[in-house]
């Protein structure tokens, strides 16, 4: 085809690829819109009715003037472009998203402009710019058809009024909001007609919509808008245009090139020249949609919130009557993402036939046209748990719950507001954002409020440039007054400014200059818009330059070449997230930890890695250049880790670059000229767009200067590629890898707009199912790898790679994934959370069955038992019980919150997979709630999904306990004596106090002769210690306790607190109270193989073995040698140092490291016991505390005798401190026994940095000769010095002791 060859070489550098005309095909006449019929079929399917019984064909309930009819692409020039094949269905659908609309002379027929975007499956974009106007219908057949339809509609109306109307389903409003004709501005016009939507062919003139469209490779919106407006002006003008219209179309298609980067271009419209410019290689990419309008429509704060949702890849739905507003906001937001790019479904204008895409269980950014007067509360959307709803016309937004704020949001908004004000634009439009948790967020507005809202909207709506009513009147008066206009022009020339008028004018939205005249005003407006656009974008770009100034340091370059990188892409870690986060200021973390998990960030890092082997992606190139420049000026270094706000410093330069280009035009395109065409065809008739001559417009010029340059460059590129091809991968294979690598983690990137048969929709849903399964596999794998990586560190392998913050982010994203899976293919949506809705259905059903059977709801016995099964009664596993726990939590107010809490609880209990399996086992319920294509009804995928979730049982999560810190939790305590009868024989009154990371229970009396009790208490977090004691009353006041078990009755976590000692006077070390250190118990039933692959226990308490070997004759053989003891001390100190190097929120319990197994106290006890003459035959056991007591007594007597006079002042102070601490511990009211006192002395000495000073004093006491062998480590000077230097390393940290340890000590 000649058209193909004509433009092919030039296409990449042509300004426009196609000129398209859409409208009514007079030959086929009025056809009902097939897409509207498909839409009704989808609606029936969505509502669970049989789609095949949906009414076919005509819809007579609506007035024919309000109905949609099929539009067609009437002509396109050229026929095809090799580089950008013409997609007829998509272009037709987006040029006229509602099909044809009809009007009569009584209706408003203002021309409309809107733009659209076609995103191909590879992510490349083509832009369309559409000018829609109304043309008189001259075909008598169409007029009579419309008359007939109107009569049938009247008859239908008469019948309908007699019969009652049927009830509408929850999804109908979504349909009805899209059934109206495209009339964004027809607010009051309908009142003009005699009867709304009436038509009588004898007296009314019928008009039909027609669209002129330019399809371009780049978004030159202003230029295209002006060209199309001039084209329309030429059609309706009384005089014929200077040249035939073909000349202008031919000129823009073939003779106007794209401006070169960094250059401006002037080309000629019909009446006046049009100027456009393109940013240079170091500037922000081209964006021509007016950002000022997006800010005016939403308000600065709302826009920043929507921008944040976009960065976090939530589902974003824009809602407006006006297509161009949808496009302006969508393009505005995606433009501001630089250097990142939106990676998911992007449909700024969603045609009615594609409504099922709102079901997509993936992140999306879509625009939905609203019907005038449609109430938001009636709009039921398939899923809202993670939705950001943007009501553009009412300037309001609704945000998802649990939404992190953008860093430095207040200062950021302030800076943007100042930029807007400097251009005279008020920035405080927009209602305050609402989150879904607010109870009234979707209630309908009462009449009076709605009325005032409408008045307000009319007065200072974005369409009126956001000026208040009074100012607008003044401006209109000034604009309409020729004298004032001349006066103003004069003042401008003489350098005087009329400030008030300028400020007013600055507030007005740019309008395209239509017709002749006012050209200078239009160009000034365009320059102002371009300058404002770039300055606003620079403020956003500057935030990212600051936040990611050091991102390169954390990129992991692990592959030797592109091929191996692409092959192992899925297994590789490309970015050191933990280190990056640890380097960021604390306030940034909630946002950044979510953002670095997104697909857009992953793609950005992938592009960075690939730039080693291939040309840098342009946006990355610009971003890296900016970072290098900032580094050159050393902006970042002093503010590292500082959350200080840095303002953008290049606003002036960026605006000047644009001004310079627009003021001094670099290139002027060839003028339109007469073409070699037949005379007399395409006769001019005012008000009608002529039929253009195809032969002329389908063939471009045979040779063209700039097209020749481009082909030479292309040939050069091709040669280079062929030379390198044999060195690299086979190109096709590489391309395939590239696509796979780029699409990793994405589900369905873009819906296909053209083919919309039910089979294609089914295939789309199948892609969703596959995508969800893949996402689930990757998320669970990531959670496991990160968590196990962290615990491997605790076992001494490698480096930690996850933070508590990051873990929380991963769990939040798992909750989001489950919500998306549960909302895929829902029959009818109920409530904001699809998962919680399903759980409630299940609960109601089970409770009903239980009542019928008159038995409690089914329970499965949980395997969670303590080691001695007689001790702790088993906890029942019950999905319903876990739901009741969540339902009783008054802190959670919304269904989405309840679903997330339930997921966290199930994950912590290692029951998530089991619970969901049980939920889905009720197949009748699943069938009732879900359509046949839903993820939850795909058996094989569902099984794999549950298996992936089961893998999470391999690690321990505390994601419920650590998040819901204020809730009341029931705890169960069981005391296990060594001798069965020892508790029953005790006459004393026992008590217990349980402590955790979040607080303690207070002292609770245990009823006499009872081994088990339950108590309710505010969440204690992970449990750390139990204090157990009695009051020594009665004759049998001795108690031998094996251990204490404590269980959290909601999460099922059971802790064991080993004791293995006596409590009583005159037995063991005389203690009436012991502080026991806890360890988390493994659920029994996990055999050795399961233990091998699960997490290491988080905490360990001192084992009986250790305690007994210290204090009794048994177990003496297990004594360690000096090397082992020194190693134990080193390890204990090392663990404490590691503890302080972790982020504060992730440190866990210090008490365990001080007093548990392998702790500092345990290691020092071993040290003091080495060579200790403790037990002599027929004499009572001697404890280390006895040695300390004698040493202190010696020091005190020496002090009184004056023997310490010769010692240094420092030595004297140390002596006094040791005696002071010893006496404080000895005189405490607590009966903690001798070992307990020694433990306390070590802990206090470590806390107050005195321990290394006390040791030499103890060694120098003569008492040591009586109580220690010559070989004892304590008597070896070099060993002692080593110990002192090791203990001194703890002085860098401030040790805080748990209240349960230091209670009652008065220093």
Automatic annotation (TrEMBL):
Residues 53-615 form the UDENN domain. Residues 805-965, 1151-1302 form the RUN domain. One of its GO terms (molecular function) is small GTPase binding. SMART domains: dDENN, DENN, RUN, uDENN. It is found in: Membrane. GO terms for cellular component: membrane. Residues 156-197, 427-464 are annotated as: Disordered. It holds the Pfam family dDENN. Residues 969-1077 form the PLAT domain. InterPro entries: cDENN_dom, dDENN_dom, DEN5A/B, DENN_C, PLAT/LH2_dom, PLAT/LH2_dom_sf, PLAT_RAB6IP1, Run_dom. Residues 162-197, 432-446 have a biased composition (Low complexity). Residues 447-463 have a biased composition (Basic and acidic residues). Keywords: Guanine-nucleotide releasing factor, Membrane, Repeat. It comes from the Eukaryota. Belongs to the RAB6IP1 family. This is DENN domain containing 5B. The gene is DENND5B.
């Amino acid at each position: 085809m000649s058209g193909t060859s004509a433009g092919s070489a030039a296409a990449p550098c042509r300004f426009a690829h196609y000129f398209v005309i859409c409208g009514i095909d007079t030959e086929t006449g009025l056809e009902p819109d097939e897409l509207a019929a498909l839409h009704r079929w989808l609606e029936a399917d969505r509502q669970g009715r049989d789609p095949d019984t949906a009414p076919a064909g005509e819809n007579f309930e609506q007035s024919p003037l309000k109905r949609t009819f099929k539009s067609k692409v009437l002509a396109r020039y050229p026929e095809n472009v090799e580089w950008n094949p013409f997609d007829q269905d998509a272009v037709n659908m987006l040029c006229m998203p509602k099909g044809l609309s009809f009007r009569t002379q009584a209706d408003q027929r203002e021309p409309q402009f809107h733009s659209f975007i076609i995103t191909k499956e590879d992510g490349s974009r083509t832009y369309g710019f559409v000018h829609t106007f109304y043309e008189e219908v001259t075909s008598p057949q169409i007029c009579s058809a419309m008359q007939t339809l109107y009569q049938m509609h009247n008859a239908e109306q008469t019948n309908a009024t007699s019969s009652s109307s049927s009830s509408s389903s929850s999804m109908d409003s979504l349909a009805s909001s899209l059934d109206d004709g495209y009339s964004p501005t027809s607010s009051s016009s309908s009142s003009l007609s005699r009867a709304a939507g009436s038509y009588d062919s004898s007296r009314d003139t019928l008009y039909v919509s027609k669209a002129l469209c330019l399809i371009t490779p780049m978004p030159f919106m202003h230029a295209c808008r002006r060209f199309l407006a001039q084209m329309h002006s030429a059609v309706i003008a009384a005089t014929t245009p200077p040249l035939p219209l073909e000349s202008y179309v031919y000129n823009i298609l073939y003779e106007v090139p794209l401006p070169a980067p960094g250059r401006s271009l002037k080309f000629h419209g019909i009446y006046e020249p049009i100027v456009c410019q393109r940013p240079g290689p170091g500037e922000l990419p081209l964006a021509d949609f007016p950002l000022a309008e997006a800010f005016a429509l939403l308000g600065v704060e709302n826009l920043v919130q929507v921008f944040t949702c976009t960065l976090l890849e939530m589902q974003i739905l824009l809602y407006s009557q006006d297509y161009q507003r949808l496009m302006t906001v969508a393009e505005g937001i995606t433009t501001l993402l630089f250097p990142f790019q939106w990676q998911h479904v992007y449909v700024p204008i969603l045609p009615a036939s594609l409504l099922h895409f709102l079901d997509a269980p993936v992140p999306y950014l879509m625009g939905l046209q609203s019907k005038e007067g449609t109430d938001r509360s009636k709009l039921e959307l398939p899923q809202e748990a993670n939705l950001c709803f943007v009501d553009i016309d009412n300037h309001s937004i609704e945000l998802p719950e649990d939404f992190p704020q953008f860093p430095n949001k207040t200062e950021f908004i302030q800076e943007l507001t100042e930029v807007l004000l400097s251009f005279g634009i008020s920035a405080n439009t927009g209602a305050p954002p609402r989150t879904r948790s607010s109870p009234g967020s979707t209630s309908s507005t009462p009449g009076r409020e709605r009325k005032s809202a409408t008045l307000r909207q009319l007065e200072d709506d974005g369409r009126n440039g956001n000026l208040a009513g009074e100012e607008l009147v003044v401006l209109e008066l000034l604009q309409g007054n020729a004298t004032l206009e001349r006066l103003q022009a004069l003042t401008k020339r003489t350098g005087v400014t009329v400030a008030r008028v300028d400020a007013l004018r600055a507030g007005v939205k740019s309008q395209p200059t239509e017709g002749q005249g006012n050209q200078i005003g239009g160009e000034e407006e365009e320059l102002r818009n371009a300058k404002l656009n770039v300055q606003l974008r620079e403020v956003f770009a500057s935030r990212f330059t600051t936040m990611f100034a050091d991102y390169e340091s954390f990129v992991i370059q692990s592959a030797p070449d592109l091929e191996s990188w692409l092959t192992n892409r899925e297994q590789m870690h490309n970015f050191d997230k933990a280190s990056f986060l640890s380097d960021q200021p604390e306030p940034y973390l909630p946002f950044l930890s979510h953002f670095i998990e997104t697909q857009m960030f992953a793609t950005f890092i992938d592009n960075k890695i690939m730039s080693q082997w291939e040309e840098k992606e342009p946006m990355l190139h610009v971003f890296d250049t900016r970072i290098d420049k900032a580094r050159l000026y050393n902006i970042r270094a002093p503010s590292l880790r500082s959350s200080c706000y840095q303002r953008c410093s290049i606003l002036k330069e960026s605006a000047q670059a644009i001004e310079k280009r627009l003021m001094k035009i670099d290139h002027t395109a060839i003028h339109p000229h007469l073409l070699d065409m037949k005379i007399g065809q395409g006769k001019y008739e005012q008000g009608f767009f002529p039929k253009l001559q195809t032969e002329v417009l389908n063939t471009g010029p045979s040779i063209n200067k700039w097209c020749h340059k481009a082909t030479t460059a292309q040939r050069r590129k091709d040669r280079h590629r062929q030379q390198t091809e044999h060195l690299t991968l086979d190109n096709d294979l590489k391309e395939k890898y590239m696509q796979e690598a780029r699409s990793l983690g994405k589900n369905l990137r873009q819906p296909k707009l053209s083919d919309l048969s039910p089979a294609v929709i089914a295939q789309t849903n199948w892609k969703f199912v596959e995508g969800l399964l893949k996402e689930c596999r990757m998320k669970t794998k990531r959670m496991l790898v990160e968590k196990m990586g962290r615990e491997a560190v605790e076992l001494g392998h490698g480096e930690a790679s996850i933070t508590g913050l990051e873990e929380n982010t991963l769990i939040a994203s798992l909750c989001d994934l489950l919500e998306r899976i549960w909302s895929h293919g829902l029959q009818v949506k109920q409530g904001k959370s699809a998962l919680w809705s399903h759980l409630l259905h299940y609960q109601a059903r089970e409770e009903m069955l239980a009542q019928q059977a008159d038995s409690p709801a089914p329970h499965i016995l949980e395997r969670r038992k303590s080691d001695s099964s007689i001790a702790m009664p088993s906890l029942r596993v019950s999905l319903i019980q876990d739901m009741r726990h969540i339902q009783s939590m008054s802190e959670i107010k919304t269904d989405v919150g309840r679903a997330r809490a339930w997921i966290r609880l199930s994950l912590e209990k290692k029951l998530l997979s089991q619970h969901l399996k049980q939920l889905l086992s009720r197949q009748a319920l699943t069938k009732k709630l879900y359509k046949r294509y839903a993820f939850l009804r795909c058996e094989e995928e569902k099984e794999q999904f549950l298996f992936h979730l089961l893998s999470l049982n391999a690690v321990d999560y505390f994601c419920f306990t650590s998040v819901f810190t204020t809730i009341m939790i029931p705890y169960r305590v069981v005391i296990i004596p060594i001798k069965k009868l020892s508790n029953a024989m005790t006459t004393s009154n026992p008590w217990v106090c349980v402590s955790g990371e979040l607080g303690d229970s207070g002292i609770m009396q245990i009823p006499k002769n009872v081994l088990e009790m339950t108590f309710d208490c505010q969440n204690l977090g992970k449990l750390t210690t139990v204090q157990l004691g009695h009051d020594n009353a009665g004759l049998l006041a001795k108690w031998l306790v094996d251990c204490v078990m404590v269980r959290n009755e909601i999460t099922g976590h059971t802790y064991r607190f080993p004791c293995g000692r006596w409590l009583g006077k005159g037995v063991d070390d005389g203690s009436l109270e012991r502080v026991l250190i806890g360890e988390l118990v493994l659920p029994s039933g996990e055999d050795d193989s399961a233990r091998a692959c699960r997490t290491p226990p988080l905490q360990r308490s001192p084992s009986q073995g250790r305690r007994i070997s210290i204090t009794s004759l048994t177990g003496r053989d297990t004594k360690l040698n000096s090397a082992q003891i020194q190693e134990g001390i080193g390890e204990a100190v090392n663990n404490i140092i590691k503890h302080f190097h972790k982020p504060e929120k992730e440190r866990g319990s210090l008490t365990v490291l001080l007093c548990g197994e392998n702790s500092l106290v345990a290691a020092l006890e071993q040290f003091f016991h080495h060579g200790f003459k403790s037990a002599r035959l027929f004499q009572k056991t001697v404890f280390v505390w006895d040695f300390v007591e004698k040493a202190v007594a010696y020091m005190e007597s020496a002090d009184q005798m004056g023997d310490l006079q010769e010692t240094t002042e420092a030595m004297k102070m140390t002596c006094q401190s040791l005696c002071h601490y010893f006496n404080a511990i000895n005189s405490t009211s607590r009966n903690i026994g001798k070992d307990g006192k020694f433990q306390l002395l070590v802990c206090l000495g470590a806390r107050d940095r005195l321990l290394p000073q006390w040791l030499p004093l103890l060694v120098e006491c003569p008492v040591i000769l009586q109580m220690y062998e010559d070989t004892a480590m304590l008597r070896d000077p070099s060993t002692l010095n080593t110990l002192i230097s090791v203990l001194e390393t703890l002085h860098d940290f401030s040790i805080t002791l748990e209240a349960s340890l230091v209670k009652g000590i008065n220093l």
